[in-house]
Structure formats: structure tokens, C-alpha cells
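Side project, low priority. Logging it here so it doesn't get lost.
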Amino acid sequence: MADAEQTDRLAIRDLIDNWAVWRDAGDWERFATVWHEDGWMSATWFQGSAADFIRVSKEGWAKGVSILHFQGGMSIDLAGARAIAQTKMTISQRGAVHGVACDVVCTGRFFDFLEKRAGKWGVVRRQPIYEKDRLDPLDPAAVLKLDQTKLAQYPEGYRHLAYIQEEIGYRVKRDMPGLKGAEVEKLYGQGRAWLGGASVQDIAAVR
């Protein structure tokens, strides 16, 4: 039993690592293999099926949109053919803010609902948790003045990430889970339900 569990944990770790590497490298064919066909992706700028996420990511790639991911430690809760994986991560995006080239870095966790089907683990739902972020001009001497009223409209955990994303034309969802609060507590509850056998519909994000 221990050997089987360890094999599953290694397979999940490999899957989550591949998500970041293949997505950021634009390896779309292999990126598609980390998802189950009913997979769902939620992000500040996108909520939809895995297939649509791949499509819009390819479109952004072609336009020069730069969004990169770096992953750290992982915690995996296993329950037979179901799992919840939480992975420490950073999201790094580059873009122009009021004409000034900037990098924004957001720290948080990927919260993944996974299932083993026909012997293969895949992502059923990915929901990032946004904990804190910062925005820096590429040129340290550049003068950047943010609209403080606009900045305050966004949740604290991804305030600067949302600012830059809306500056380049995306519409950002305002109620994504953060480090604390009702949204992340709801997500944790959905995770427990998933491990307990809940249906895909029961753990679905707002669609």
C-alpha cells in the first residue's frame, strides 16, 4: 500500500511540475495532457474549460503576453483515486503600466482537484490562491504613479497583478481566494468534499 501511495504522490508531483514547465514553454500539445477532458481553470483573468484556457494562452503567447510560473513545496492529500494538491508558487507577469515597463510578482498556492481515471492522474480543477504581490519598474530610475483609487478596488492578495492585467486589456475577477477570508474557506470546504466523493458539479467554480 505504501508503495502504491508513493507512486501516486510522485505521479501527481510530476503532473504539477509539468503544468508549469509546459505552459510557460508554450508546449501546448503536452500541456493539454495534464488535464482531464472536463478540466476547469480559474485565474484572475480567465475562468473556463481547460481547452479554452489553452486556446487563449496560445493567443496571448502569440501577442507577446508574458506570464511565468515558479513552483515550490507541495502538500498532497490522497483519498483513493482522488487528491487535493497545494503547491507554493509565484506568478510573474511583465507589461507596461502607464507607459512604464514593469514586472509584477504574486505569491500564493495552486489548489488542484485531481482524479485518477483509467490509471492516469489529471487536473479536474485548478484554483490559485493569491496571497500577496508587488509591482516594480524594470528601470529603477523610472517614475511610476499608480491610480490609488483604482488600486484599492482590487483584493489585497493580487492588487498589483490585477492592476497590470487590466492595464493591458484583461477583465479581472474580483473575488478570487486569498490567504484568509470566506472565499478561501469555501475552497477548502470544496476540497474536503472532493476527497469525500463529491461530484465534479459539487466542487465546480462559479461558471
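Brief comment: The chain has one domain: 2-188.
Revisit when time allows.
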